[in-house]
């Protein structure tokens, strides 16, 4: 199912961890920097603390660096390794389940719980994001580490050999270094021991010590690298990094509960699929909306089943415990994860779902004494597997490139400001890279890009990325129609919404010497002083804009006055005084302006 993605390109966060990451591009020589810095630092040229808790997930990035040294920028090998690791996690899950459900209890391995659970797991379409997106390797690696730790504990319990405990600690550490989600297996391991073994209290303690040590070592390293444990104290103000901004407490928890219900829905009925669950593809919910109430009812039932059956060591109770434990870390209940939800977040929790499906088939279908039920259960299982294969087959091509990925998401995540922005960006880049021999097609792409970017800005007017692309589209339109006044009016709108939009001063610099001087000076004064200095108090940007005016009119008193006020506002009194005195010398009347 996944071989077709071998030649696919880099998309989404591949740029952050591979193509745009300075440390990854160094290859093996960049490994120490990957280990000793926050995981976004190689892309952003330093730790930005853009999301709550920052990110320290070096293992997959190290693998990309090693590949860079061996294969260069070739993406085929990277996709191949993802597919290989996906197969490996399937084998590991099979080994774990073979211990939990010995073959003798299920007669034939072809119709055994371990085999069927793994097949259902591997075929499930919800995993397409993890496998087809190269960056998704961190999910596979953390699953390998976490399940590896569980496997080693089970081997220790059956053999009593201490080396398995050492291996379990090592596996847990590697899982944590891939992604912190592995920590949930500090709950999954004792949970599994309770349901499937006759372990005594000392066994629980002994089995968990290596994983606890691994977690402590990881946290010490993580804290030393990023500088804090969980919270930098820096307020997250970007809706795309904290989707709960602007919500009250009730709305926040109702929305979280709704997304938890959506995870169940995706496991049962994985359609439609999308890579984008940003605001507001997931709408703001409250406890009066049906979606929230249905999710609440589902989890109340799951809670009831768990507490009703856990003493009987029921497989259903174990699966519920496994799912809740592993989904908890990505639920937003305890700390924001940067988005409402994601399909890749249930890469590990879906193991429990697959096991329950296999269990139900064996217990109530294949083991039935009635031929009709047996045949019907086989038919249903075949139908489900066929549907999984078909859905995966049609979903994987979305990951071919940014245009196809965002194009498919545009049909699903219609209310996502992020995806509308990304779709506009992909179309803009497609138009920009076109040959000049098809101006009509280029114009069509730019107009379509403008449509999506405007949709994004209508949802989130201060969205920096959307304003950046909008400024590029405005510039492209100016190059076609030459309407300077319209360009400057639209740039003023962008500076008002997102003052730090980088492309605006870049294109203004291009216009200097090309556009009428008086029009440009008037714009620089109004935008730099009246808007950015007086109204927005965005002093660094104001200085940048006014400096562009100084380049073409070094003795214009309004520009000098604006620079003086902007420097003063930004705390540079020396520069502020210098510019104000020059302005007053040229036009003393400026002293009366407040």
From TrEMBL:
Protein name: Glycosyltransferase family 39 protein
Pfam family, one: PMT_2
Gene source species: Candidatus Opimibacter skivensis
Family matches, as SUPFAM superfamilies: TPR-like
Residues of the Glycosyltransferase RgtA/B/C/D-like domain: 69-221
Alphabetical keyword list: Membrane, Repeat, TPR repeat, Transmembrane, Transmembrane helix
Protein origin, superkingdom: Bacteria
Organism phylogeny: Bacteria, Pseudomonadati, Bacteroidota, Saprospiria, Saprospirales
Chain segments annotated as transmembrane: 79-97, 109-128, 140-157, 164-196, 208-230, 291-309, 315-335, 347-366, 372-390
